[in-house]
Specification:
The chain is α/β, with parallel strands linked by helices. The protein has one domain: Metallo-beta-lactamase, Chain A (4-Layer Sandwich). About 20% of the residues lie in helices and about 25% in strands. It has eight helices and 14 strands. Helix 5 crosses helix 7. The structure holds zinc ion (ZN) (2 copies). The site of one zinc ion has 6 residues, from loops.
Length: about 300
């Protein structure tokens, strides 16, 4: 049964994520599952299957409530939706929060099965100050025009809600008195993108992808990542590749580790793998990175990390 919790009016956008549907357990942890760890464009070639070819999509599960939230709708979203159906996961409203709307972060949306269920409510959400996007609904409507896709947004079936939230530093308490804070922060990327910091029951998850640092790593990204149990950071390029990809909006392996070191992060997961980086290459780089920052993993599709 739902009960009111502090700050409900202020944070209705996350209410449904946190509402309890099952008996609460003692574990108030947060679980992250990678449904897409590839950047820029999906790849399906042999030699890319270990890290996976689907583009950015993260599933966050609040363990005690068994509620999920999704960040980004890259092609990995298709498998996420299929898995939800397969296990019979029931959640009246699903939130999909977006770092930004480049193709590799929205292309899975038309293939998200729950979006075709008239009973399903889906909240499309942006969080953070300084947003420059105009009409949020249009961002999804336009790529679904009949010239591009057979089913238009209004024909999909689910009940969509589009919400832009400026003030991201909102506190709220779930039914079992677990306070949760979600912070969205804009960082440098062509057109802008947002990093998220999610704090709950003493655990901190930071997701910061599609970020390009300057000559030094962005101190605001370091602050956002401060003390995180898990930092998921963009690592599309080697230091050499970064030199020839200035302005493309991404980071190097070195920069991801530098942020983790400066912020005192416990565990680092590198993501947004370049479509030219095959499994052999990524395995080699992962080993090299682990020599410098031992608690580093390169994100693999299907990988789960419990905080
Ligand atoms: Zn991207
Ligand atoms: Zn991007």
């Amino acid at each position: 049964m739902r009960q009111p919790f502090r700050g409900f009016e202020k944070c209705a956008f996350f209410y449904d994520v946190l509402a309890v549907t099952t008996e609460p357990s003692l574990d108030c942890g947060v679980k992250l599952k990678f449904y897409g760890a590839r950047g820029s464009i999906p790849v399906c070639d042999p030699g890319f299957q270990q890290f996976g070819g689907n583009t950015t999509c993260f599933q966050i599960t609040f363990v005690d409530t068994n509620r999920i939230a999704i960040i980004d709708a890259g092609t990995g979203l298709r498998n996420l939706g299929r898995d939800l159906r397969a296990i019979g996961h029931q959640q009246d409203q699903v939130v999909i929060a977006f770092t930004h709307f480049h193709w590799d972060h929205i292309q899975g949306f038309p293939f998200f099965r729950p979006a075709y269920d008239p009973e399903q409510r889906i909240r499309i959400l942006t969080v953070g100050r300084g947003q420059t996007i105009g009409n949020l609904r249009e961002i999804f409507e336009v790529p679904l025009q009949s010239q591009y896709f057979p089913v238009q947004l209004e024909q999909m079936g689910a009940q969509f809600e589009f919400l832009k939230v400026e003030d991201a530093s909102r506190h709220f308490t779930a039914v079992n008195n677990v306070e949760t804070t979600v912070t969205g922060q804009r960082h440098n990327h062509p057109g802008g993108a947002y990093g998220f910091r999610i704090e709950r029951a003493g655990k901190v998850l930071v997701i910061c992808t599609d970020v390009e640092h300057g000559d030094v790593v962005d101190p605001q990204v370091v602050e956002l990542s401060r003390g995180a149990d898990l930092l998921v950071h963009d690592a599309q390029y080697t230091a050499e590749e970064l030199q020839t990809h200035r302005g493309w909006g991404h980071s190097s392996f070195d920069q991801a580790m530098q942020v983790a070191e400066m912020a005192g992060v416990k565990h680092l997961a590198m993501t947004h793998h370049d479509p030219e980086h095959d499994d052999d290459f990524l395995l080699r780089m992962e080993k090299l990175c682990q020599e410098r920052f031992p608690n580093t993993q390169f994100a693999r599709e299907g990988m789960e990390i419990i905080l």
